[in-house]
Amino acid sequence: MSLWSKYTEERFGYKTIEIDGGFITYDLKPPECSIEEFYVEQSKRGTPLAKRLADEVFNTARDAGAQRMWAKVTPGVNGADHAMKTNLHYGFKMFGVRGNDVILVKEI
């Protein structure tokens, strides 16, 4: 477990899944699950790695009784276009805007 994972779990109660080339940090509080951070190394984008990470969180959330997943994309930051396309392709729908973030939701 990386220091990042330890920090976010201790400070916020978030869980992190880390695999070679990427990680996903999430907050599971049924009936909700929110993706807090999601990173895939640039050389591995466009591979099944992001889907593999998202599927693991989705399945964990479903098994814990969550009914929906939330994600956010901050327009204008590096990779925002790719993140938005990836989330929409995975089945997230735009829900609204909060501050500088576009909020997305996916029913489980």
Can you give a write-up of this model?
- This protein has 108 residues and is an alpha+beta fold.
- It has one domain (3-107): Gcn5-related N-acetyltransferase (GNAT) (Aminopeptidase).
- The chain has helices at 3-12, 49-63, 80-90, and strands at 15-19, 22-29, 32-40, 68-73, 93-98, 101-107.
- The chain has a 6-stranded mixed beta sheet with strand order 1-2-3-4-6-5, with helices on both faces.
- A hairpin with a 2-residue loop joins β1 (15-19) and β2.
- The chain is globular and about 30 Å long.
- The chain starts with a helix and ends with a strand.
List keywords for this structure.
3 helices; 6-stranded mixed sheet; 108 residues; alpha+beta; Aminopeptidase; globular
Fold blueprint:
Layout: H1 3-12, E1 15-19, E2 22-29, E3 32-40, H2 49-63, E4 68-73, H3 80-90, E5 93-98, E6 101-107
Distance between the termini: 28 Å
What is the overall shape?
A: globular
The low-confidence runs, each spanning 5 or more residues with pLDDT under 50, are none
CA-based gyration radius: 13 Å
Number of strands: 6
Number of helices: 3
Structural class determined from secondary elements: alpha+beta
